[in-house]
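Rotation project, supervised by the postdoc (A.L.). Task for the rotation student: set up a whole-complex structure prediction and record inputs and outputs verbatim in this book. Inputs entered:
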Amino acid sequence: MLEGVEQIIHQTDPYQLASRKPHNENTVIKLDNLKIGGGNFTLIAGPCAVENPEQITKTAKFLKEEGINFLRAGAYKPRTSPYSFQGLGEEGLILLGRVKEETGLKIVTEALDINTMPLISEYADIIQIGTRNMQNFPLLKSAGAINKPILLKRGMTATLNELLLSAEYILKEGNPNVILCERGIRTFNDHSRTTLDLGAIPVLKEKTHLPVLVDPSHACGHSSRVPALSRAALSVGADGLLIEVHDDPASALSDGLQSLDLPEFSKLYNQIQTLAEVLQRKVN
Amino acid sequence: MLEGVEQIIHQTDPYQLASRKPHNENTVIKLDNLKIGGGNFTLIAGPCAVENPEQITKTAKFLKEEGINFLRAGAYKPRTSPYSFQGLGEEGLILLGRVKEETGLKIVTEALDINTMPLISEYADIIQIGTRNMQNFPLLKSAGAINKPILLKRGMTATLNELLLSAEYILKEGNPNVILCERGIRTFNDHSRTTLDLGAIPVLKEKTHLPVLVDPSHACGHSSRVPALSRAALSVGADGLLIEVHDDPASALSDGLQSLDLPEFSKLYNQIQTLAEVLQRKVN
Amino acid sequence: MLEGVEQIIHQTDPYQLASRKPHNENTVIKLDNLKIGGGNFTLIAGPCAVENPEQITKTAKFLKEEGINFLRAGAYKPRTSPYSFQGLGEEGLILLGRVKEETGLKIVTEALDINTMPLISEYADIIQIGTRNMQNFPLLKSAGAINKPILLKRGMTATLNELLLSAEYILKEGNPNVILCERGIRTFNDHSRTTLDLGAIPVLKEKTHLPVLVDPSHACGHSSRVPALSRAALSVGADGLLIEVHDDPASALSDGLQSLDLPEFSKLYNQIQTLAEVLQRKVN
Amino acid sequence: MLEGVEQIIHQTDPYQLASRKPHNENTVIKLDNLKIGGGNFTLIAGPCAVENPEQITKTAKFLKEEGINFLRAGAYKPRTSPYSFQGLGEEGLILLGRVKEETGLKIVTEALDINTMPLISEYADIIQIGTRNMQNFPLLKSAGAINKPILLKRGMTATLNELLLSAEYILKEGNPNVILCERGIRTFNDHSRTTLDLGAIPVLKEKTHLPVLVDPSHACGHSSRVPALSRAALSVGADGLLIEVHDDPASALSDGLQSLDLPEFSKLYNQIQTLAEVLQRKVN
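Outputs recorded:
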């Protein structure tokens, strides 16, 4: 924003393990034969929350048939109000475990505190640390001690340096598999929930070797705008997407307004595949 | 940002001529055989300012040979400091006139006040109203009385409703040819000059029938990030781009850091053409 | 926001005439026996707009009897929508001229363009340049050529350096009497129209010798919050206030929600006088 | 920010226990004979962190002699970088315990995770939940189960509704003693660390019965601006201040730039007492 600021940032980059400088090669995270980062473009899709066995099974089977490999769904939900649905907790994890067994989908789910981290890591293939916890340092440290990849979402008001220093907390504890995620920042804008900062992607690509995903669903808050932002995220150089999908958005217990329904997701997935080809990216 | 806000916006949309509602068809602006809007994707390129005959001629000829149809360059420059280069003024317009004659390029240049508006309209094919003047209402009214298309840039702190109401000032005076332009908003971000709000594009497409361009150069302030943001702008549904190009960015009198040099522009132009094809957009 | 940024600002302060450095003494602006700046605390009050003879006369006489010396009211109004009341124009100026003759109040009113500047300067004692015109550079230059003090409001998205560079445009043309005004900035906040940046006042006092007023009415947008913010502005070190007062806020043609009625203003004026005494400031 | 938004907020206020509506009287929190809220104005002062026995003892004795009743100092520090000083942990708590015994000062210190909450509550009189943890919901719930007042700082990007819903998490678990704290929000401003939102104070006073403090030290980040903002916070209606004080700011292990030294604090304390008298507030 200010002349000279950029220079200072580069001079004083306080992160080390997250830095591009000593690591010429991009970090590529491997789960069986699946890869996140490098030339790959990863689609993680699913509902905001596990709600019940039917909902999660139906969505998971649909995604599997579409060719998707990663299912996202929350068992522990960070909700602004104590009166909102807080997630199914351990019961939700158990449902995710069953769905994983049935479909082979990799599970991405969120951890909210240090005590449930070990339990979640038994069920999850990738553990998410959400935007409100980006600077929950004890949680970051506990994620650093876990043997699972961590999906770290940018705080709604975090600078990129702050995001990378939070990644550094995890890396420093010995977990090298950190995936960053841009999900919108707070601005004066009133046309969407937050403002998706796609300009952050090329900057992150200069600064760090870690993969960077984009979550257009939470950023904009309206399903009608998710496809356009998804195409833009692919084109700007992101390593993948987090997309909210629900088999019946109107009845979702949380975030229904921003969830694609199943046919909308199919359509978007086709667009992404076509666009990825011309951009020489491998969708997985 | 707030639940319910969106509804209010739609209920109370205070603009009429700019509104999507009574106009099912997109506005397509025609200059000879060139079209802006509809399925077209328009590239407007050139230096921040006309600096001297050699610079503007060299850049213009290069762009013409590349296949570009629109040249942007400022004769009257709005500069934050009174001690900065303020543009060549009328001399700059005369140089633009000569370049137009030589190359046939359409000229896009900025008007800063109501008194020079008629003079500028003699030389310009499209008159730009800059971000700092988005709510300069006398200037908007004078633009409404001119028989040339107006390129209206979004203010750095303007909501979309405010942008559309500024367009309405022009439309109401009888000039139907208004082109909107997203060029970045002010946020807490320190990684770029401003934050390019690509999420505004699908929203504007819902709200208005007017064409919407994107200016990634001013938004991010770094030439290295312009190609990625240009691809994203095309993919998100914009109707074209404003790109800063300079034959020698290091010696530019203004905005050199964000200007592509000529080979960088060629490379970007190729990428855009390839991507536009798969997105079924016609580059002009 | 970023470590080291402050230092850069100080190293590269690009304004000269506005700078504190070569001017140890505060600028004090004199209008007859009235002073703005120094140890004085100046109250400028009045309606958003001149609406009709009765309204402006009633309010002016009330303010005069209260002991107020400066009347603010717009004849030319910058309105977001072309369909909103745009002010009475020259007729409004004539009404302000009559009220000035009757009451002796000094008149503060806004100029929107370079062509009406001379006319306005015949009626106004202080000419306001509004927040939307803070970077309307031709208007700033024309204000620099006028022999009247200029009240320059900070843009809703302007940094303090940008504000001071806009002041520099006026000072550089030969008009030394510039008064700055903080009136709220655009942020993610949804509890008020804008966020009053009172922290800017001590910073401006370090950076510049020019007087700095605060406009709490436009900043917060609710009359119920104006008294608290007015007390805070006095306590934080501002040189005065711009307060919207209307004899019948519910029927105001603009900004009624944020206008104090006459008894509310009297009450606030008393609070300010008591507080100013303990802070050793002279109210005028 | 948007017309109509305010109405929606009031219609849908989703917090209940925190709401002003069913509680006509302000919550007043009592610790022995000390009171927070009501007509009282509470000063909480001390260093960012407990660094060593000499530092904390010297500062505590100084504050006690000045007449201050509340000492703030962190034992567990949330630091942006994993390479920064992280606080003395339990050793810091033990030092705070000794200082409390010697001086009788009430201790205010921060909890970062659910597991250390019980230990901290043995030493602290008031437990702080910091700005980065405002939406750490498991931490809020654990604070609701503790029998000590909770000082809840507003997140740097939180709306007032979000702040009140976080308070609601604590209240709902059975702890009625919640103190809110405004400490600056993230904006485009580059003149200070964050933008102190003093306009939030009168709004919070309309919305809730809970006491509201202001932390000008963290908000502005410069000790030279703390006195002006402290006076403004008192004048705008806050219930008290959190002030960083260090016996040797230049050698502080964290936040030295924003800490007052001991003579600066004495001077500010005198100003506050004088101003509080005319505003009919009781300093404690």
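Student's summary: The mean pLDDT of chain B is 94.
Supervisor addendum: Chain B touches chain A through 48 residues (CB under 8 Å).
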